[in-house]
Design brief:
Layout lengths: L8 E3 L2 E3 L11 E5 L1 H11 L1 H23 L3 E18 L4 E20 L4 E16 L8 E17 L4 H67 L5 H36 L5 E6 L2 E2 L7 H11 L1 H21 L5 E14 L10 E2 L2 E7 L7 H67 L5 H36 L1 E2 L4 E2 L3 H7 L1
Parallel strand pairs: 3-8
Antiparallel strand pairs: 1-9, 2-8, 4-5, 5-6, 6-7, 7-10, 10-11, 10-12, 13-14
């Protein structure tokens, strides 16, 4: 029944999930539950490491951009420059020597203005210039001058988009996209680890059932052997019992091999050495939980990271359209500055009579004819934008369809658990009854083997139904980002901080 919590513990505790097969050297031991397995997988997964590195790269690029938006201080030094040239004086038709030397430096503060995409600069240039000429017509053959210029300049682009803001927003979106890819891969890895973990558990259960079947057949063989020796049964019964016993031993061996193979696959997935001995802590309880389909769909449409990825694609497509519209655009810039300049042969007198140096300029870029380049760029960007919109709508439909499918599957698996639980109870009763009949000589070993197989198969079917339910419940959690077992959302903290 929907919402029922079926509390039937099949088995629990610690299971030794690796076997001492011939020739294998065991160098390490690990006690793992499903949470610890996930932690190890995250640490060792190459894909997770690469995705994490991509996330770090996006984060550092965004940090660098934010640093560029702060005031930038710089000093440019020209410690020494000397030049000696032989020049020709056309008036006297004579050659003369000219020597010049200079030394100086520039201190600048540059601040980008994010709201307007403007640039504000405070610049101070100080220099010392020396010049000597041997020309007979030079009024002053020797010149020594100290120079200082201090000015504040503002440059503002006009009739165009804010490139600084767009660069910042693109890097923010790139970081968020990298974070989403990281979190999606982590969720996908969680599902893969859970599937393989429960596969190991299922094979462990299969091995336990095979060993129990072997124990029963050994007991049956002993009973038949005694009865044959006492003349109570025909020799054919002993032959059949030997076949059943051999089949059971083969079943145990096959189950051991299957478990060993699944363990290797699990170790590879989580990144452990193949010679590691695993102790798996597993407890499978047939608990079912109520699932509200409307809540599941609404929560998924609000918080699914794939939808946010499509939204980021839309925003980036809008940016591409803005850039396309700026192709060969009419644009310009306004530059205004104000400062003071001083020149003097004596450093002590340099700042006595400074000169104001205001300046303003207006520049326009006027494209005349571009042979249709801008028009084509805009059409291409509009096509990409429309494609992104379609992808967003398709993603929403797929999310809703998949959740509806998972909810239906959960209801079916819930019913299967109830059916298989009842089947196990009936199979246990049938086996106990027929075992007593067999001991009394009213049933052949072949018939008892049939009831034994039914019991083993029903137990395995119940175990698999519970595992399938748990995997599907985890799938629903991944699909909706909502934990219906705890009745809590599981939106990652990293993504919440990004949204804020």
């Amino acid at each position: 029944m929907k919402g029922n919590r079926i509390r039937r513990q099949l088995t629990g505790g610690l299971f030794l999930a690796s076997f001492f097969l011939g020739g294998i050297s065991l160098q390490a031991q690990a006690l793992l539950d499903i949470d610890r397995s996930m932690d190890i997988a995250v640490e060792n997964s190459p894909d997770m490491k690469q995705t994490e590195l991509a996330l770090v790269r996006s984060q550092e690029r965004l940090n660098a951009q934010r640093a560029r938006l702060k005031s930038q201080f710089s000093i440019t030094l020209d410690p020494f420059e000397y030049e000696k040239t032989n020049r020709f004086d056309q008036q006297t038709s004579e050659w003369y020597i000219n020597e010049s030397a200079s030394s100086g430096g520039t201190f600048a503060i540059n601040q980008r203005i994010l709201p307007t995409d403007g640039q504000l600069m405070l610049v101070n240039r100080f220099s010392y210039d020396y010049s000597f000429t041997e020309s007979a017509f030079a009024a002053d053959p020797l010149s020594k001058t100290y120079n200082n210029r201090l000015y504040l300049q503002f440059t503002q682009p006009i009739f165009t988009y804010n490139r600084t803001r767009m660069e910042t927003e693109i890097l923010e979106l790139d970081y968020e996209s990298s974070l989403i890819r990281y979190l999606l891969m982590r969720l996908s890895l969680e599902r893969d680890v859970s599937v393989e973990f429960y596969a190991v558990y299922s094979n462990q259960m299969r091995l336990e059932i095979a060993r129990e079947d072997l124990t029963n057949n050994e007991e049956s063989y002993e009973i038949i052997s005694n009865k044959v020796e006492g003349g109570l049964l025909a020799l054919e019964e002993l032959y059949q019992a030997e076949v059943n016993l051999a089949t059971s031993r083969s079943g145990v061996f096959n189950a051991e091999l299957t478990l060993a193979n699944s363990l290797d696959q699990f170790k590879v997935l989580i990144g452990l050495p193949l010679d590691t001995t695993l102790l798996i802590a597993a407890e499978i309880i047939a608990d079912t939980v109520p699932v509200n389909q409307v809540l599941a769909i609404d929560h998924a449409l609000k918080h699914r990271m794939e939808l946010r990825e499509r939204e980021i694609d839309l925003e980036q497509a809008n940016f591409d359209l803005i850039v396309a519209k700026s192709t060969n655009e009419f644009a310009g810039s306004v530059t205004a500055s104000f400062g003071v300049q001083a020149n003097d042969e004596q450093f002590s007198n340099l700042f006595e009579t400074p000169t104001n140096t205001p300046a303003i300029g207006l520049t326009f870029n006027i494209p005349l004819f571009d042979w249709g380049e801008r028009k084509s760029e805009i059409k291409a960007a509009e096509a990409s934008l429309e494609s992104s919109k379609i992808s967003y709508d398709v993603e929403k439909i797929d999310i809703e369809r998949n959740i509806r499918m998972v909810v239906r599957s959960l209801k079916n698996l819930e019913n299967q658990i109830g059916i298989q639980r009842k089947t196990v109870e009936n199979a246990e009763l049938a086996y106990d009854i027929n075992l007593e009949r067999y001991r009394n000589g009213d049933l052949t070993s072949l018939d008892l083997g049939m009831y034994q197989n039914q019991l083993s198969e029903s137990r395995m079917a119940l175990t698999n139904a519970i595992i399938d339910y748990k995997i599907e419940l985890l799938n629903l959690k991944i699909q909706t980002l909502y934990d219906f077992e705890k009745q809590l959302p599981i939106i990652p903290e990293e993504l919440q901080s990004t949204d804020d």
